[in-house]
Amino acid sequence: MSYEKLKWQDEVKDQNGVVIQVGTPLSARNMNNLEDGVDLAVNLEGALIAELFNKVGSVTKELEKWQKQRLQQGVVTIYNKAVKSGCVINAMVNSRYVQISKTGTFLDGNISEIYVDGITAGVKDEQMIAMVPQNSSGSSATYYIYIDYNVAEKRYKPMIAATVPDGKMSLYRITVPANDNNMDLAAVTITDIRRIESNPVIRSTEPYALVSIPGYPEIDLDYDVHLTVESASNIGAVGDLILYGKTANGFYIKYTGSADNVVIRWTLVNPDIK
């Protein structure tokens, strides 16, 4: 649609009534030209608004990609807790109690060794450390024996719960079958899930963490990840941080040292992703 701007003029007469300036006629042609101008202006405004929304949408998408794909950050904690020797859990005869011992047989004075919170600590042989609940339901129930620090007693000791609290050292999983109302643990299954490492530095299993990328999946694996230690049981004993196993949805982190409770801030950078 083309539009030619029309300059409107008033009709002007002199004192004798003689027309000295011819006014622009109020005709259908001129009025239609005016309508065309209005229509063109409205269409142009709509096109500009549409283009503006398109640009804003593109900017928003780019910002979202920076926030959820090109640049992401998070914190993960890796634990290095292990049994150095002992910490054997077994059932006590004619009861629903369990005991902990260095050899599998209770002997007063025997001490198991654990590596936890960056130190080696002892756990004494102890009977009746926990009672395994009966189970009247129609499905099995699961409990865990784990090591935690008891502030009141100022020592590490075994605990029992339906789940292991974050950062605590698991020892055994206890499965109580359905309808087990026995007075002993004959029907109960006690499964060893200890991580046993005689040396916290020269070890056979590596403490690691899997980081799931919270934003969009990375459509290529050329992204980089910067790792920074924020805290640990011993900062000087963290060693090297190692990134491995990169996928579109996550990656793994491990370290070479003997520290425990290592808090790592990770920053994923992938500026070239389209």
Q: Strands, helices and their partners?
A:
Elements: E1 12-13, E2 19-21, H1 28-70, E3 71-78, E4 82-85, E5 88-91, E6 97-101, E7 111-116, E8 119-124, E9 126-131, E10 141-150, E11 155-161, E12 169-176, E13 189-192, E14 208-212, E15 224-231, E16 241-244, E17 250-255, E18 262-269
Antiparallel strand pairs: 1-2, 3-18, 4-7, 5-6, 6-9, 7-8, 10-11, 10-12, 12-13, 14-17, 15-18, 16-17
3D structure, described in words:
It is a single chain. The protein has 274 residues and is an alpha+beta fold. Helices cover 16% and strands 38% of the residues. It contains 1 helix and 18 strands. The protein has a 4-stranded antiparallel β-sheet with strand order 11-10-12-13, with no helix packed on it. It has a 3-stranded antiparallel β-sheet with strand order 3-18-15. The protein is elongated, with a radius of gyration of 38 Å.
